[in-house]
């Protein structure tokens, strides 16, 4: 019965797996493996407190079970209880001195707590203990890339990712990281090679195809494919806030909403607002005081799960932005979009849809990555995001029926320790009404 439960759990059949775990516990009360795995499953289903209780019960019966300590640490880590997670990982290592999952998790938790020297020592120890473990090289490379002090850190990260691929040719995460790091170093031709290699292994994956175009290996599409955006942000959802806010000094929501509030005036909670491409909901708390109703839309269900936990939205929808706007004529007084239109090259259709979704006199506010000069065509940068020239943005806004256009330069994030230059764009829809 327990073997059946584990197989069902492994294949994602969680309802059936839970039923079998509980039947196993009815047959043998307190069976530690059933308690342990049921605890993991409960956490996966959003019942983390129950999961913690069940794994602790299992550990009372088998206190030297390193895997159970490790999984208990994972639940604490994913619920933000970092000190508890650290204690669990250390206990797992006390039970099994070379538990590589526990050691890698300990390193990540130390890094999240900004105990960088201790984290680095843990990553180094993992590499020393498991030099043929692809994950060990990958994690060291990611640590180096997240904490760039000099160009040599990126060069060393490239070497780590190549070693990760050497140890495990199927490690496409390392190929992804290798391509990104090579473009950060300006080594576009080598990045193209990495993405071509990835495509050979996963020909249906939209991520390497988009990034291959971004690095000049294929013709750039007019906008990022929906499948690419969904894949990237679903995968990124768990660590999105931490990575952007802590490691990339991400400021787009604050800068954008600050500029918008400058034209909205005193918060009266009277506006219907759409957060277009809301992600994990970073803009929500900032704009909420002005909103009678606050809606959010995003392609990534994983990101919306995080926005739902953050709260403050009246409705959250998983949808493609242009189609969603087209389906909601004259629905909002304000549409704001922080770092979403960077995945659109041609802005004409999405801004026309935005205009149609706004009431007369309504406001649009969004950020873009800046391109100097007056090119009439956006450029897909090697980051995978599009850059737009001021003149192009002005022309598209005018054609979509917007007036009172303001386009201000601002640094929205950092990359390789350097600011990424962007535009903060505000405009008002023609006609009488709000604004």
Structure at a glance:
Pfam families: Methyltransf_12, TPR_16, TPR_19. Helix content is 56%, strand content 16%.
How would you portray this structure in words?
The protein is α/β, with parallel strands linked by helices and 435 residues long. Strands 1, 2, 3, 4, 5, 6, 7, 8 and 9 form a 9-stranded mixed β-sheet that branches. The protein has 2 domains: 2-219, Serine Threonine Protein Phosphatase 5, Tetratricopeptide repeat (Alpha Horseshoe), CATH 1.25.40.10; 237-429, 3-Layer(aba) Sandwich (Rossmann fold), CATH 3.40.50. The model has no long low-confidence stretch (mean pLDDT 92). The termini are far apart. Helices cover 56% and strands 16% of the residues. Helix 7 (100-112) runs antiparallel to helix 8. TPR repeats lie at residues 66-99, 100-133. This is Tetratricopeptide repeat protein. Keywords: TPR repeat.
